[in-house]
């Protein structure tokens, strides 16, 4: 066997071993880190921000609207536009939490709020308890009514 072939085989073996070790490391730490019971991970900025907004709203006894959505479904896009429209009007009374379901950093929130389909709207009362959950697009008038009643109850 020539020297070049030996080096090529040695390189392939090294690559295979390194790939297996990297995969095992991901299996034991990567996925656990995303789904751990500790929600605050410094390398998961959006996730930390959403969790912090929810926790701060609870501490301030402020209701929250959590919108779980993606950028690819039409109903999600419509709900996000409604979210952006209402937010400036009610952000002093209600915390607005935007959660992109395609961001792996948000897996803890998806699991915690049992999100199975999108868009999902979760309204939390001033104690951080689920007040109302709805899957799908919501008419603006109905949503405004619910948000205003929730804001008035806090």
From TrEMBL:
Q: Which Gene3D superfamilies does the entry link to?
A: Glutaredoxin
Question: Which ranges carry the Thioredoxin domain?
Answer: 34-152
* Name of this chain's protein: Thioredoxin domain protein, putative
Taxonomic lineage: Bacteria, Bacillati, Bacillota, Clostridia, Eubacteriales
């Amino acid at each position: 066997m020539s020297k070049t072939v030996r080096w090529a085989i040695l390189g392939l073996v090294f690559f295979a071993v390194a790939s297996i070790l990297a995969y095992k490391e991901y299996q034991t730490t990567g996925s656990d880190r995303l789904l751990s019971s500790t929600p605050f991970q410094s390398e998961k900025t959006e996730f930390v921000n959403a969790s912090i907004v929810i926790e701060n709203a609870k501490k301030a006894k402020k209701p929250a609207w959590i919108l779980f959505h993606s950028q690819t479904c039409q109903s999600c896009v419509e709900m996000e536009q409604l979210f952006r429209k209402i937010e400036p009007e009610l952000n002093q009374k209600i915390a607005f939490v935007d959660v992109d379901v395609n961001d792996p950093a948000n897996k803890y929130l998806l699991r915690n709020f049992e999100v199975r389909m999108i868009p999902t709207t979760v309204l939390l009362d001033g104690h951080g308890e689920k007040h109302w959950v709805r899957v799908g697009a919501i008419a603006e008038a109905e949503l405004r009514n619910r948000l205003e009643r929730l804001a008035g109850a806090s």
